[in-house]
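Slides due. Your pick:
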Amino acid sequence: MDNSPGSQPAAGAPTAMTPFRHILYDVWVEDAQVLERVGPIREMMLEAARRSKALILDSYFHQFDPHGVTGVVLIAQSHLSIHTWSEDAYAAIDLFTYSHMDPDAAIGYIREQLRPVRERQTDLTRGGAS
């Protein structure tokens, strides 16, 4: 991105004045096996990004031994990430974005897939005009 004086951001690109939405989504599940392996978690997170109409740039997921996953989906709008602790039947999901996508569609899809017995969603507004 060109930050030189007089440069203009691309149409629709965020600026320091753009309000960003940061969703922290904690879930506790009945079946902890859904949180153990990279394959299903990766597919769920990529599909969540697709359903939100985000532009996927890349992704990386790591399998812990004996179980547990950490991963991130890089999107043009920022990122989706997940960290699982299957021994506690818990996952921490983070979605940071600006406009031009539907973060509620991503969270809704993740909710459908994980079927939490307990959940907590915290919505934060970051950036924007001060």
